[in-house]
Amino acid sequence: MPLRPSPPRPNAADQKLLRYVIPNLRNACRILKWLGHKPDGCKAADLARDLHIPVTTTMRIMVTLQLEGLVRKVESRFELGPVLISLGNASLAGTEIRDLALPLLATLTAQTDETSHLAIPCDDRSLIVAVQDSPHPLRAASRPGFLAELHCSSTGKVFLAYAPSRPLAEIFPRGAPRRTPRTKRTLAEIKREIELTRKRGYGLDDEEFHPGVRCLAAPITSSDGVVVAAIGITASVQRFSRERIPEIARLVRAAADELSRRLGHAR
Known about the structure:
alpha+beta; Arc Repressor Mutant, subunit A; Beta-Lactamase; 2 domains; six-stranded antiparallel β-sheet
């Protein structure tokens, strides 16, 4: 019988963090961990009793988790949902690929003098798993753990072009959200961008995610021929000018090819 999970007693260093804790989000995390020990699932009333969470609060949490695919309901019992499988696979894949990619990111940053990054697909988003910062004091890059929309990030465009998870109409049922005035939002625009990405072999974010920031990424292929990640460069448009796109594309694609080779892909 697993021990009942309860919030750990905070040490002095964690006391400041408690001001930012969202109680019911923490309870949702406790519920997911508890269900991990329950292969046959668990009723909401039992979860409430076992974890000392009010029944009404437990039901609201479970409905929310169910809508997000993090749990599913089988008859009267809740069990872990299918989304957690993809998240777990992404975590495992990210760890292996990240370790192999780190030296290549360092080389790519040294070659370009700009910030390089590695991303993997995760739940209709592009998950940044590693970043090698530029030596410049002013840097434009997301941090590891950041989830970027597919339609307006360079790595996301790679995944839409080479590793689509679902039809575009399902991913963007009402069009894509606008991040900047340059963001391509309609299905027709996104389809054209996918075709362009496949034609040139890399995805380009041309101030579509952040104003004044340009990104370029190329696909990484595993031994079974599946695109599992993308590697890229992020920089301000002042340093990463349009004239530099061919140079950056050549270096990024070379790094992607090398990482694909290390993953066992034979081109």
